[in-house]
Amino acid sequence: MIYESVGYDEMFSAEGAPRTACEPFVTRLQEIPDAELRNRQQAAELNLHNMGITFNVYGHEDGTEKVWPFDLLPRIIDSDEWQRVEQGLKQRIHALNLFVSDIYNEQHILRDGIVPRELLQSAKTYREQMAGFKPPQGVWCHISGVDLIRHADGTIYVLEDNLRCPSGVSYVLENREVMKRAFAKVFEGMSVVPVEEYPEQLLQTMLECAPPHVSDPTAVVLTPGIYNSAYFEHTFLAQQMGVELVQGSDLIVDNGYVYMRTTKGVQRVDVIYRRIDDDFLDPKCFREDSCLGVAGLIDAYRRGNVTLANAPGTGVADDKAVYAYVPQIIKYYLGEDAILSNVPTYICSDESQRDYVIHHLDELVVKPTNESGGYGILMGPQASQAERDEYVELIKANPRNYIAQPMLQLSTVPTLVEDKLEPRHVDLRPFVLCGKDIYVMPGGLTRVALRRGSMVVNSSQGGGSKDTWVLRSDGPHSVGNHNAHVENGSSNA
């Protein structure tokens, strides 16, 4: 097996030796003929197709629905490193929940000048309708997806926070199932922490945050419908949790309570895992032309008669300009230094930082503050002069809408390209649940840039994914905040 990595590789050191946590896997991998490895990859792809694991890409010339791209070789994380990541994620989500609550209530952090008031007032995702509101358990961000990257020097950074409707967790679960089917001999006995309990943890989190006066709460998943890019995930999670999947037309609000239409009449709904953006949740409160939401929903929510996960208005904390202040936010609310570092970030609404960005565009990545999916990004070092000139004008016209960061070189993981292994850049999106406690799913969604040299891992931009293995420690402290058993592929493959 010949493999030449560039920069920091997750599986091999610069000298080409397997990293300690990866040695058992590499040993098994070397015993598999190249032709057999390719057959296993094809089997995995066939499994994905037969299981109907898809995603939608709007406006793609080949059609909207696509089979989820998956690479057979996993990303492996040792237990010691994962424990640090897990602690950092819990710290971050705890602080961001306190921040969102403060922003919509006392606003201490603004009065103390830690975060500029004008930055919040100009945020597109700030919802004045939520002012003065406090949700059950004080939880605003029930489900979060935090994107992590590793730079060439080995440092792990938080690239961005996703606190509105983060997607991708269904693919984590299905990637594991496909791996156990297609790669059972390699997977067996590898002491990989299981991920299958996530739907149960998600349901528990939602029910914990139900209105306090409800003794036996009913939860549903609210989807915008079959044409949404993450519709597969909506149906999958509803099925796995054993709750109803509904659209806005299935729900009504009467006398301040939310009800679901059923064949046996109406049934009260107490918790809604909403996969609809704020703007479309309630035509009486947000966009009047929305046909996706439920009229009167926000009134019922503000009365305390239903819980929305995530709460409307949480997007103010994943604004990419606000992201630049998260280390200060953690220090302010928790009195601690951030365990996980931010990528250095320039805020273009600040005049001096904007001037620096404009004069160093050939070194920086420019991002819109509220776009997602990899859209609207300028990779300065790879862009033409004409493209950089265009972005100078965009930044000058609307500086609040842009931030810039140095172009970090994402770490790589061996990826099967035809019949050989090649390095491909990856990131990682762990999923964090916040109810009475904070739960971090072990591992998360490793997204891989399947195009040679590309740093864009989003599925909408041609990326794929890998199974993420968090290895269990042999010591007395298990990974995660649960009593995980060691997963063995032989019983499930």
Short description:
InterPro entries: ATP-dep_Glu-Cys_Ligase-2, CP_ATPgrasp_2, UCP005522. 28% of the residues lie in helices and 22% in strands.
Would you mind describing this structure in some detail?
- The protein is globular and about 65 Å long.
- The model is unreliable at 475-493 (pLDDT under 50).
- Strand 4 (143-150) and strand 5 form a beta hairpin.
- The chain has 14 helices and 23 strands.
- The strands form 6 sheets. Strands 3-23-22-19-18 form a 5-stranded mixed sheet. Strands 13-5-4-20-21 form a 5-stranded mixed sheet.
- 28% of the residues lie in helices and 22% in strands.
- It has 493 residues and is α+β, with helices and mostly antiparallel strands.
- Among the domains are: 212-305, 3-Layer(aba) Sandwich (Rossmann fold); 347-407, 2-Layer Sandwich (Dna Ligase, domain 1), CATH 3.30.1490.270.
- The two termini are 26 Å apart.
- Helix 2 (34-50) packs across helix 6 (169-182) and helix 3 (79-103) crosses helix 12 (326-334).
- It has helices spanning 23-30, 34-50, 79-103, 108-111, 117-121, 169-182, 184-187, 198-208, 231-241, 297-302, 320-323, 326-334, 351-359, 385-397; strands spanning 54-56, 65-67, 70-77, 143-150, 156-162, 219-222, 244-246, 251-254, 257-262, 265-269, 271-274, 307-309, 341-342, 346-347, 364-368, 378-379, 402-406, 412-417, 420-429, 431-434, 438-440, 445-449, 463-470.
- Residues 74-449 form the Circularly permuted ATP-grasp type domain.
- This is Circularly permuted type 2 ATP-grasp protein.
- Residues 457-493 are annotated as: Disordered.
